[in-house]
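Subject: for your reference before the review

Hello V.,

The reviewers asked for a structural picture of the protein, and I figured it would be easier to keep everything in one thread rather than splitting it across files. Below is the amino acid sequence we used in the manuscript, unchanged from the supplementary table.
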Amino acid sequence: MGGALTRPVRSDPEEKALRLEGSQKRLTIFIGESDRFGHTPLATEIVQRAHAAGLAGATVFRGVEGYGASNHIHTTRLLSLSDDLPVAVIIVDAEERIRGFLRELDELIKEGLVILEDVEVLKYVGRPRS
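And here is what came back from the structure prediction:
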């Protein structure tokens, strides 16, 4: 793909579709499924805030097994069902937009792991509007 974009570009001022390509940042937030912000699941709160901040997109993945700083294994195995499975929230956008969003996470994340990585976006295409 041609020259790398440093930030998402709106393809048409009338649309909210973003075009994202080239060198970007991936923010991954590892938390527990039972983590909350008030009465809201923490993953949901993060996604809602990312959307409100205009970030290019966010996805939540639920893990089947894992452990973190507490060193306690959480699993979906039948004999050791867990109500606190690992969850990863992944957001990809331009570095300045991701770094700006990190301030939101300071308020939200009380325990977990937050990582920031360089990524190369090859394709980012939304669904056509109906």
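For the response letter, the relevant points are probably these. Confidence is low (pLDDT under 50) at residues 1-15. The two ends are 28 Å apart (CA to CA).

Happy to draft the paragraph if you're swamped.

O.
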